[in-house]
């Protein structure tokens, strides 16, 4: 039986990007693509768990605001779709770029709030769930760094991802169109003082910074890929 044929495909070509843009070893990236359907399945299971985890927030918010609620499961769904599209020979730069933004942003934001607000998270979730949430979200960041193999982050795709995650940021923390803000529940009231500010502002500060970081990484990858092509005498 052809395991690669059943579970994935031969890996796409890898550009010689700087290590800070492509930090994973090539061999690890290759495994991800050869077993891409396993990665897709894991992300779909994570998506299903995430929607279950957000079930109480869904009940509290109007249906119109639901797209802005499940941030992390939305990101894992996007990477599952992006990798599945590649495996089927129908790669989408837009899906891959959205997935990169989401998995970097939410993969880092959740550990950020878990650490900053650890007393209540540990008390409410228990050590096992706390550790699972921390490790699984860091895993989202790791998997985001295989996506440079299937997209070079064209500007149109970056614009779409930037627009979506900016709107999502506004709905989560600043100007919800209907009802309350839609950020992931934190086990403290939004207005509770936290050092020199409030819980909501601490969470929002992390979300703002982590919206900018994947944008910079995507554009830097785009620039590096174009330089390599120009060096080989290829067009942009």
UniProtKB/TrEMBL annotation:
Keywords: Membrane, Transmembrane, Transmembrane helix
Record's keyword annotation contains Nucleus: no
Superkingdom of the organism of origin: Archaea
Spans traversing the lipid bilayer: 35-54, 66-88, 100-122, 128-146, 158-179, 199-220
InterPro entries per the UniProt record, alphabetical: DUF1405
Entry-linked PANTHER family: DUF1405 DOMAIN-CONTAINING PROTEIN (PTHR40042:SF1), HYPOTHETICAL MEMBRANE SPANNING PROTEIN (PTHR40042)
Name the UniProt record assigns to this protein: DUF1405 domain-containing protein
């Amino acid at each position: 039986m052809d395991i690669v044929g059943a579970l994935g495909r031969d890996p796409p070509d890898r550009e010689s990007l700087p290590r800070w843009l492509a930090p994973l070893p090539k061999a690890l990236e290759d495994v991800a693509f050869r077993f891409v359907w396993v990665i897709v399945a894991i992300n779909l299971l994570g998506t299903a768990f995430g929607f279950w985890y957000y079930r109480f927030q869904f009940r509290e918010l109007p249906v119109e605001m639901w797209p802005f609620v499940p941030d992390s499961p939305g990101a894992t769904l996007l990477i599952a779709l992006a990798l599945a599209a590649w495996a089927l020979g129908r790669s989408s730069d837009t899906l891959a770029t959205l997935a990169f933004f989401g998995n970097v942003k939410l993969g880092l934001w959740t550990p950020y709030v878990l650490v900053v607000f650890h007393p209540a998270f540990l008390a409410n979730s228990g050590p096992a769930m706390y550790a699972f949430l921390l490790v699984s979200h860091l895993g989202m960041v790791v998997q985001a760094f295989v996506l440079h193999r299937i997209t070079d982050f064209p500007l149109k795709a970056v614009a779409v991802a930037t627009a979506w995650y900016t709107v999502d940021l506004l709905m989560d923390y600043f100007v919800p169109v209907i009802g309350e803000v839609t950020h992931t529940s934190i086990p403290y009231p939004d207005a509770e003082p936290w050092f020199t500010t409030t819980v909501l502002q601490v969470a929002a500060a992390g979300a703002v910074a982590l919206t900018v970081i994947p944008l910079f990484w995507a554009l830097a990858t785009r620039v590096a890929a174009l330089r390599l092509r120009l060096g080989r005498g290829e067009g942009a």
